[in-house]
Amino acid sequence: AMEAPPLRRHRARYKGPATPPWKETYRRRCVERLRRSRAKLLERYRQAGRAGAALLVPEVMELEWQPLAQVRAGRPLGAPASRAAGSACRGRMVEDPDELAVLEEIQHELVLQEQSVIEEYERSLQFDEECLNAMLDGLEASDKIICPVCRKNNLTVRNHLVLCQCGLYITTQDMTEEKLRSLLENTITEHSYRCFHNPEFTVTSGMEEETSLLMSCSVSLKARFLG
Q1: Is residue 116 part of a domain?
Q2: Do 25 and 111 fall into the same domain?
Q3: How far apart are alpha carbons 121 and 125 in whole angstroms?
Q4: Is 41's pLDDT higher than 80?
Q5: How many CB atoms lie within 10 A of CB 227?
């Protein structure tokens, strides 16, 4: 290959700052840590709500920067470092405008990832709320009772059992559609008074207990509902 003319080589030196060698590793580790912390992120969101600021990104970036700072400072991973030394290293890092731009780029990507997770969760909550409202509307407007588990089929209620095409099958005593409708309405309404999250209904059974219908919530304890 022909060697570039001296002038071209001279200009190439000033085309702009090269990508720091640690950028891709740091970015990948931050993205992966944020992905693994989805449950923690949603728990923090449920407690704080959308306040307009990143909920977990600063913490993720700080945790992943610590081992990188050790390597850059010439210490092996796992070697103890004083808090002052760590702060000084981070201070030197952010004073470099090129590296600061890299960190801001990574932070922007992480914030978008965090927002995407929260928006997906909000859509899920909205869908659950619409399904519950549809079920309550159906309870009020019809003699039929929509299954709280699959939220699609109507329940069949007999004196000694409640069943659905989705597989729900619970033995009961002296159960009527009117009793079950009232039980569903009261349980969901009572929950909505003390919690703004939507409950879910599941069927559970054990070796020593009969099949039951449980109502659970992401921020509340599970409660035996029927069975």
Answers
A1: yes
A2: yes
A3: 6
A4: yes
A5: 16
